[in-house]
Design brief:
By secondary structure, the chain is of the alpha+beta class. The chain contains 7 helices and 10 strands. The longest helix is centred in the last third of the chain and has 20 residues, at 193-212.
Length: 271
């Protein structure tokens, strides 16, 4: 599934084409993806000017001058294609600006598109209870300390809780915990303030590096221009079971299951 860096990379790519442009063509090519397309999507967006593009957690936001925002989620395999040579059967929504065409391609159709009133965007159900953005100033060690206080769940699992931090996914939590030298199995309430002070910049550093490198491009994901990200070549622990820790500390990367998902970590340096 495209995670936060992949969505951020997508929004930056779309901005170069859509920001300030007028939507002259809005064409759903089937009635639904994961959910039905909004019934007023074509009417609401055709002729609207794009006033900005943004991201909330793993959701893309396209704002317009009609105070309506198109929200999209890429699901498991979705991506936007810019000026495709031909429209394929998995291109489920077309946005045209006159001289440019964008196609939302999603072979598995786990993605979706929604509309919201821009002034009420924070009340959109998926956003209402979300925690702070991991790249924003609101994510602090103090915030994590308060959210973790008295909690016995593993720190790795709570970092995946969107109510605590918005948009963190499995890959980047594993990488950030390794960078901060925190055992993913440790009860969140037992993580020291000093460790949390390492964790916040570790989260930012991992995400910023992934964005710089265009994301991880796992399985079907690619950028709007068709290029693949290469952050996977920078993994320190993720998907490296049995390999030596890159800290050269004599540790071996171990994989365990937590909450039904795999966790990779180094038992030697993550305490």
């Amino acid at each position: 599934m495209p995670e936060l860096p992949e969505v951020e990379t997508t929004m930056r790519g779309l901005s170069r084409v859509l920001d300030g442009a007028r939507l002259e063509r809005v064409e759903p090519r089937r009635p639904d993806m994961r959910f039905p397309f909004p019934p007023d999507l074509v009417q609401a967006l055709t002729g609207a000017r794009v006033t900005g593009l943004d991201r909330r957690a793993k959701y893309g936001l396209i704002h317009t001058d009609r105070d309506r925002t198109m929200i999209f989620h890429l699901g498991m395999s979705g991506r936007w294609r810019i000026d495709p040579d031909e429209i394929g059967r998995h291109d489920h929504l077309l946005l045209g600006t006159g001289d440019r065409l964008l196609a939302l391609c999603d072979p598995r159709r786990f993605g979706f598109v929604a509309l919201a009133d821009t002034p009420l965007l924070q009340e959109y159900p998926a956003f209402a209870a979300m925690g702070p953005e991991p790249l924003g100033a609101e994510l602090t060690a103090a915030h994590l300390h308060a959210a973790f206080a008295g909690r016995k769940q593993a720190v790795k699992l709570l970092l995946l809780d969107q109510r605590i931090v918005a948009g963190l996914g499995n890959i980047y939590v594993c990488e950030a915990l390794h960078r901060a030298r925190i055992d993913p199995r440790k009860p969140a309430g037992a993580v020291s303030r000093a460790a949390l002070a390492r964790l916040v910049p570790a989260i930012r550093a991992v995400l910023e590096l992934a964005i710089e490198q265009g994301g991880s491009s796992l399985r079907d994901y690619a950028h709007p221009d068709g290029q693949l990200g290469y952050f996977a070549s920078s993994f320190a622990v993720y998907d490296r079971e049995g390999e030596p820790c890159l800290r050269d500390d004599g540790g071996t990367i171990t994989r365990i299951a937590q909450g039904g998902r795999s966790t990779w970590y180094c038992p030697r340096c993550q305490r």
